[in-house]
Amino acid sequence: MRKLRSKSGETLAEVLVAILVVAVSASLFLGMVAVSARINRQAVKADARFYKAMSLLECFEAEEGAVEQRSGSLRVEGSGVSEELPVTVFYGDDMVSYQLDGGAGT
Predict the structure, then answer these.
(1) Is the dihedral of CA 53, 54, 59, 65 positive or negative?
(2) Does residue 46 belong to any structural domain of this protein?
(3) Are 46 and 80 in contact (CB under 8 A)?
(4) pTM of the entire structure?
(5) Tens digits of residue pLDDT in 71-92
(6) Domain span at residue 69?
(7) Rounded to the nearest 5°, which phi and psi values hold at 97?
(8) Which of 58, 90, 99, 100 makes the best surface tag, with the fewest CB within 10 Å?
(9) How far apart are CA 66 and CA 56, in angstroms?
């Protein structure tokens, strides 16, 4: 009786090991993506808190007279839409910031 053994191709064990390697690699990659997304969200929140605090500080300094402040408007254009927003602009030592009137600072 002749054995049916092919010289080309992979065995079942080799295929299962390859699938296992791909699955472990994919799970590690997805874990890294999840962690980087969480770190990115934390960084965005920290930046927003920092800029809000800086804007509040500039407003406080403007009230104290250390920073010059002017009112004006800011034109925002995009996708065929244009809008004028009222802003207060703060000028100080090498810093310029603005705050949307009636909104959060930027």
Answers:
(1) positive
(2) yes
(3) no
(4) 0.46
(5) 888 788 888 888 888 888 777 7
(6) 15-100
(7) -140, 160
(8) 100
(9) 13
